[in-house]
Amino acid sequence: MLYKDKFPCSPNFYFESTNNDTIKWTLKTKPLEAIYWKTYKVKKRDVRILSKVTPEQRKNLTNEIYEDIMLTEKPPRIKEPKVRSL
Fold it and tell me: In total, how many domains does the chain have?
């Protein structure tokens, strides 16, 4: 408990994987309270898998979780075609 003794700085999350069952994971940021900052950009190295998996599965799951985080935090922009009028 670091963030002014109110919130845990290493909360556990659960992810439903496409290949595996439910995966337990957490974010390890530097500094630890950065997990609660709006301006902190999550990096792939911050994702830590807590479930017991093989190294190859760990790599795939880390990529899958990171991509899911990026899609929810910063969804891709959809360009609308310009309407031209005369």
Answer: 1
- Give pLDDT, residue 39: 85
Q: Report residues of the chain scoring pLDDT below 50.
A: 1
Tell me, yes or no, whether 64 lies in a domain.
yes
Contacts of 63 (CB under 8 A, 6+ apart): 44
Does residue 86 fall inside a structural domain? no
Say if 57 falls within a structural domain: yes
pTM for the full predicted model = 0.72
Asked if residue 2 lies in contact with residue 33, where contact means CB atoms within 8 angstroms, the answer is yes
pLDDT number for residue 63: 92
**62-67: which pairs have CB atoms within 8 A and are 24 or more residues apart?**
64/15, 64/17, 64/18, 65/15, 65/23, 65/25, 66/42
The answer as to whether 17 is a domain residue is yes
Residue with tokens 């439903």: 16
Measured CA to CA, the distance from residue 7 to residue 47 in angstroms comes to: 19
